[in-house]
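To: structure subgroup
Subject: Chain for Friday's discussion

All,

I'm putting the inputs and outputs inline so they're searchable in the archive.
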Amino acid sequence: MSLWVILPVSLPVFTITGIWVVYAMALYNMHVCPVDNWVYNESCEEKLSLQGGPVLCCTLDNVPLISKCGTLPPESCFFSLICSTGSFMVMVIGLLRYGLVVEKYQNCVLNTAGLSTGWICAAGLIMVGNFQVDYAKILHYVGAGVAFPTSMLFVCLQSALTYRLAKTQGEYCVGHLRLAMTLLAFVSLVLSGVFFAQESFVLQHASAIFEWVFCIIIMLFYGTFAFEFGGVSCETLMVLARGAGAQRGLSRGGSGHKAEAIGGPVHLQHTPEGIAML
């Protein structure tokens, strides 16, 4: 089994653990309210960071959205690091998945679209992590508007690609697993977006919960590539180095040589038509 199988497993372990650490830091520094807090106020006499006691006065500025947890230092530094590292891992996983499909099967529109959406999602994730919502709101929302839809599209394309390439019962089981995760992610994303647009305190808090659920499901989806990455080899890397087009050309050239070996050399007649063909 290839050691590349560690990469898709490391991504959800690193990112999910990382964002929960960021949440714990934001909670410890009184920058956000706890996830189990459902009571919010229009305004408070003191900022959350200056309050004390078991009962906290929270406003919508303290909703524990993932981006809110990573807005203020020191947790913002770790949040940027997690998003930047995670986006790089997403790009590598997407590239290896693309090369593996080309090597084992052949390139197709679904495979190319999956690579493109994965890399676009990584670009949006970098913007989300490095432009905090309280200080660069437009750029942060642009990054989120890129990362969330493209990540959803990525898992849809990969689920469809899994079913298209499946031949064994185990591969179909992986397809069923990815389809279930895709449906859960879609429901979570829709509910998070709808609730985020509402003015209700409860719905805003519910939006944060569904955002957490969506991000965790997406990261776990990347972890399922461990089933295929055991087959990543040096040949997969050579496919990526040569490019999919060169790989197809090499395959056609190999088929031609094989036909010549079976049928023998082809002798051309010395005719004007034959010379023209040369």
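Points worth raising on Friday:
DSSP finds eleven helices and no strands in the chain.
Confidence is low (pLDDT under 50) at residues 247-278.

D.
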